[in-house]
């Protein structure tokens, strides 16, 4: 059955697939014959998905990984979000459907990878700068002896003051950074998966006002140097790609120079600090989730816990 049949009537197409030998063939491991109870569960799950397709005017053939995550973000009749294990079961079911259809790359597989990348770390692993520590880093401006020092400083600022992941900072493109600030003094950064890790989620964030001038100054320096390519933070004069170990090493150095001593120092520490500072300053949770590029609301839980610990005086200081 080709994908056009799934676009015309996804419920009928799924029912035929579910009760065929092909369904068992898409299982990751050998499974017993499909029971009536399991068939009912799968039918209910796909029916909910098909209802969402109709409501949003979507088709199976036109969906991208982000669309599937958008579906998972919908709430049930009682306003409750999907539990992460249930969300994974939905994606696994859709992955089997797309595998049967033969669509490559499989959008459900990509969505599963994106969910895994967003999975919150345990609270004890969440290390974030406090507002005071973040202020120390921003205030400690290094002596710019070379263009690479200026590059490193600007890269650290987009992680600390805009919440970029290390992979997003490495793959940030010059065209993704606005050329002028917003009315409130922030600088819009529009991130796409291009040149980043496969699990990057398209989103927008805003660089805090106090970091805007330094980042724009770096981009002007980059242009004057005539560095080829479009990576905002190139590794060399040829426009090569930075290695993540370089980013982590420079982040540790920046924190040391600022007199900030905390465990597990690295680029992620800067991103965590941005999230916690913004949450404690009153940024709404949904707005924060979008700025961080998190696919689902539960991925924000570890940041919320770290923010609460800092408010209670139990976090970094």
From TrEMBL:
<dbReference type="InterPro" id="IPR013762">
    <property type="entry name" value="Integrase-like_cat_sf"/>
</dbReference>
<dbReference type="GO" id="GO:0003677">
    <property type="term" value="F:DNA binding"/>
</dbReference>
<comment type="similarity">
    <text>Belongs to the 'phage' integrase family.</text>
</comment>
<feature type="domain" description="Tyr recombinase">
    <location>
        <begin position="124"/>
        <end position="317"/>
    </location>
</feature>
<dbReference type="GO" id="GO:0006310">
    <property type="term" value="P:DNA recombination"/>
</dbReference>
<dbReference type="Pfam" id="PF00589">
    <property type="entry name" value="Phage_integrase"/>
</dbReference>
<keyword id="KW-0238">DNA-binding</keyword>
<dbReference type="InterPro" id="IPR011010">
    <property type="entry name" value="DNA_brk_join_enz"/>
</dbReference>
<dbReference type="InterPro" id="IPR002104">
    <property type="entry name" value="Integrase_catalytic"/>
</dbReference>
<dbReference type="GO" id="GO:0015074">
    <property type="term" value="P:DNA integration"/>
</dbReference>
<keyword id="KW-0229">DNA integration</keyword>
<dbReference type="InterPro" id="IPR050090">
    <property type="entry name" value="Tyrosine_recombinase_XerCD"/>
</dbReference>
<protein>
    <submittedName>
        <fullName>Integrase</fullName>
    </submittedName>
</protein>
<keyword id="KW-0233">DNA recombination</keyword>
């Amino acid at each position: 059955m080709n994908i056009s049949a799934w676009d015309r009537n996804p419920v009928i197409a799924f029912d035929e697939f579910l009760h065929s030998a092909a369904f068992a063939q898409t299982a990751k491991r050998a499974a017993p014959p499909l029971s009536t109870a399991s068939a009912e569960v799968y039918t209910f799950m796909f029916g909910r998905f098909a209802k969402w397709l109709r409501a949003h005017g979507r088709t199976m053939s036109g969906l991208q990984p982000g669309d599937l995550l958008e579906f998972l973000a919908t709430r049930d009749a009682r306003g409750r979000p999907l539990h992460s294990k249930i969300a994974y079961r939905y994606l696994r079911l859709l992955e089997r459907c797309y595998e049967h259809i033969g669509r490559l790359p499989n959008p459900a597989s990509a969505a599963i990878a994106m969910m895994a990348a967003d999975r919150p770390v345990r609270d004890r692993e969440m290390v974030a700068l406090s507002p005071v520590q973040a202020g120390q880093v921003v205030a400690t401006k290094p002596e710019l002896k070379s263009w690479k020092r200026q590059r490193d400083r600007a890269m650290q600022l987009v992680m600390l003051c805009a919440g970029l992941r290390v992979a997003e900072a490495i793959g940030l493109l010059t065209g993704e950074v606005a050329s002028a600030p917003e009315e409130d003094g922030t600088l819009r950064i529009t991130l796409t998966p291009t040149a980043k890790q496969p699990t990057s989620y398209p989103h927008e964030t805003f660089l805090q006002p106090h970091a805007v001038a330094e980042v724009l100054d770096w981009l002007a320096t980059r242009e004057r140097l005539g560095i080829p390519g479009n990576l905002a933070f190139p590794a060399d004069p040829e426009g090569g790609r930075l290695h993540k170990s370089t980013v982590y090493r420079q982040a540790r150095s920046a924190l040391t120079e600022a007199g900030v001593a905390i465990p597990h120092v690295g680029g992620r520490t800067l991103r965590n600090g941005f999230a916690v500072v913004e949450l404690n300053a009153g940024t709404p949770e949904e707005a924060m989730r979008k700025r961080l590029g998190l696919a689902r609301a539960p991925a924000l839980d570890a940041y919320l816990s770290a923010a609460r610990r800092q408010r209670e005086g139990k976090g970094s200081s």
